[in-house]
Amino acid sequence: MIMFLPIIIIVCLLVLLSLIIFRVNTKTKRSFATGKTGYWLLAGYTGLLIAAAVFFVFTPEQNASSMDIQKAEASYDWERYEQMLLVGDLHELPEDWVFKSEEWKVTMDQLTVEKEGEIGYELGVYVDQSEDYETIEAIFFRSPIVVRGMEVVPEEVPRFSLIEETLTVQWEGSRDIRFNLYEPPMMIQRFMDGEGTGWDYSDAKRGVYGVYIKAPEGLDIEVADGSSIRVER
Amino acid sequence: MSFVQVKTSEVVGKQFLYKLKSYGGVFTSLVVIQLLGVFFSLSGSSSHGTGGLGFSFNIRTYSADIIMAFTIFWGFMTALLLTTKAYREDDFAFVTNRLTSNLSTISFLVTAGIIASLTACLSSFLIQVAAYIQGSEVHMLFNKEDMLASLGYAAAYTGFSILLFNSIGYLAGMIIQLNRLFLFILPTVFIGSLIILGVNDGGNPVAVLVQFIYFEPVFWLFILKTLVLSVLFFALAALVSRRLEVGR
Prior knowledge:
B: 3 strands
């Protein structure tokens, strides 16, 4: 029924307008913008609104319904992914996440990880040491950002460089992501069972991201700002 | 002296059609005011920004609130305008009395209000299209189901609000026609009430009325309240109009 609502409204409007226009006599005593002029202007405006409604119908939908958003966000179990990382199950992360990896031979006894650029404590460094690893491998991973059920993937990745005993994770620049959110009018939101309850910062889920370092057991690894997370298998 | 009996309903019908024919100008102002509403809505009703690792994002919210508010105000002004002498004298082309004149004008206001509420809720599509074509770098966040669900509410809310403001405007117009002094008194009382409304938590009659209608969370109760109050204000306006002289 709801899907037919715009059509019903448009038909009502058209019927009303046609009734009025055809009943109205052209011999009006009033001049500019009165009598029929007003109705023709209204008819033109209605045409514009109908064209906009048609455009809307063919516009691909970009975010899920309120109910679906709740369901979808429940399925983004970020904590579960963090738990996986803590036990070294990096391979369990979804394949469509953004990954970048670089590998180096081990030529040192000690490794210092430094972060440069606007990263700070935001970027966690997972340190996974095992006898099975023969090289140093730095992997950046990132889940999509989810805004009201819509996934956006910031494709920017950090730059890795290993000079002597220092592995530098360098982040350059920042990307602006713009969203235009259409909300049902505020005046009627109280009648709508929680649908379209206005923007909330919790509507944006930043997801999971970090740098995962695989290195041989004996290597002494230190993260400069102390933000390392040890992987315990 | 004529022996032809005329029915009230026939006279009202003829006057109503005449008013539809003559008062098309109100739709010019409706289109202008709604287009202005669309224009103002394009800057967004609110903007939020936040950021994360390597990104910052900005969310601009759009809605048809401004258009709905403008349209409701248009309803008030239109009703006020139709009580002026120039418009009321149009009725003298017919066999008329105050009752038929009031009924035909109210019928016209209700018809115009229905059209206005329908165009106001459809204008949300126009805002959305405008927001959509603002650039390929912008992600549109909307949901068809939510939006369509809101259309019925928006149309009914605007329609009944226009009716209420029509009746308030009609009553105010009639009071002003009764005595021109009210032209100064009514705006003073209204603006004064707004100021009190701003500093008072609902102790004055205007605040009580606003809370009574616009804080109502149950939709059908909101409709009922606006309907009853509109009938009351129109009836009061009709009573006031009976005190007007023919030439006033």
